[in-house]
Amino acid sequence: MYKIFSPKVLLCVLALAAGFARPAAAQMEVIKIDWELSRLQEKARLPYAPVEALNVDPALKFTGRLRAVVTLRNASAKKVEGLVIRYSLRLRLLKAGEPQEKAFWSVPFYVDELRVAAVNALSERSAKAMNFGFSDQLGKLKNSGFIPTALKMEVMLSPRLGDEPAAIMKESVIEILKP
User: Fold this and answer.
1) DSSP-derived secondary structure letter, 26
2) Does 56 fall in a domain?
């Protein structure tokens, strides 16, 4: 009687399987989201500067340009190409005269994606999300009886084989203060 699975045959099958196995995908990670603002001073636009909170007067038009800087990290020894970052923006709203605990998150008012050509091995790369209609959204809320108290950005890298969900998703909240 012949042995089908002799140790030599089993060893050959395992060696072939290891040889044809696809290498693990490079793990990309969204490590942080920073906010930057370019203010208008008289008729000149100032360079973008980091901000921790926004000072917005509901009665006045918001003239600043807000952008989010999404930083990605490639922790593998292999270059990663063709990345897509999907993101959405939503406001936390408060009905005028209500206590702060009654604030609620609205549905996203803006959804878009960024494309990153490549991130080199063992390095970081930033992508900038801008022109997302923040001042237009504030204008729509002007006489609605609701006050924006925060802006939230939710970011997700387009998933790839082997990605960890916690590593490819991130959110950032910037408070909106009255001046």
Assistant:
1) P
2) yes
